[in-house]
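Incident review: delayed structure delivery

Summary: a single-chain prediction request sat in the queue longer than the usual turnaround. Root cause was a stuck worker, restarted by the on-call engineer. No data loss occurred. The affected request and its eventual output are reproduced below so the record is complete for anyone auditing the incident later.

Affected input:
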Amino acid sequence: MFRTKKIWVLLLVAAALLVGVMALVGLEKTWRAVLQAGLPAFLSTGACMLLLVLVQAAAWQYLNGGVGHKVPYHVLLEAMVVGQAGNTLTPSTYLGGEPARVLYVGRRTGLRYQELTGTVLLSKYLEAVSFVGFLLLCAGAAIERFHHMLFEGAGLFLGVTLLIVLALLVTLAVSLVMTLQRGWTPLAAVMLGAERLRFFPTRMRRLRRRTVGVEKQASRVWRQEERLILPAILLYFVTHVVMFVKPLAFFWLGWRLGLDLPELALIFVTSQVLLAFQLTPSGVGTLDGGLIGMLTLAGVRVADPQVAAYLLSLRFWDFVIIALGAFFAARAGAQLLAQPMPGVEEGDEQKDTKDYKDPKDA
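Output delivered after worker restart:
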């Protein structure tokens, strides 16, 4: 109940911030832009979000099939919607809904949470690697066009910040690949450090034991099931392309405004950087104000009310995803908001990590 109240508070704060940003742009101008954009533009945003979860579910099913998990596609699709709702609501747009995905599929299929978490962890690693590659391409296109705005005068701070973020992301991608290739367990190491600092030591010890098995499973699939890796990365690459073209479809259908590659790249890079630090559901406030400000500073051929209309379309479909996610969760009886982090069955909590065996190795 307490978590549910916190979510409602976050939603109310997000709604207030959204109204505030739109008021700064001009409520009347924003509403006029919404009417000008019309239904096709708003539907295009929804179509892109639908395609996104369809491809993500397909990638997850592909990885699950490769390790012997027989999970119906529609169950994975529902789980992706539940997870996307979690990503929207929580401070982490990339990881907040992953426990909900695992819990949902586990409840629907009876598969052990630890086995499912292994495929989810691998999928997030592969998605991150493909994302960094795509983001570098977009950043290169944006920097080539807007280097004067990013690296001269007052904009120098933005350019330096962008380069630092890109360097950190490249380091992260390389680290993830090395982790999978060499069988490292960095997440378990973090929990070991927390345990030694006496930060919920008993809980961290149990979670560390589970996490080692999950990380080892993801590493084993990376090394032994090479045929799965490249197709999965390509599927996740498609999801980034879908996100990239989403504003193109909206502005073209709304005003026949054809944004070019550098402009789309700037929108994509700015949105992803801002969403990485979201403090409200879907980054409301930060994303809205930040994207409008960046496009204005860069002189992109889109008026502020038009950008506000685009952002409102995103918020509308975010709400639809949250509603669908809540519906699927309630129908499955999962009660996701009240559940702890999924792990292994009760009897397995006391097993040491050295006893872990992957189901395919048994």
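Verification: The mean pLDDT is 87.
Action items: add queue-age alerting; document worker restart procedure.
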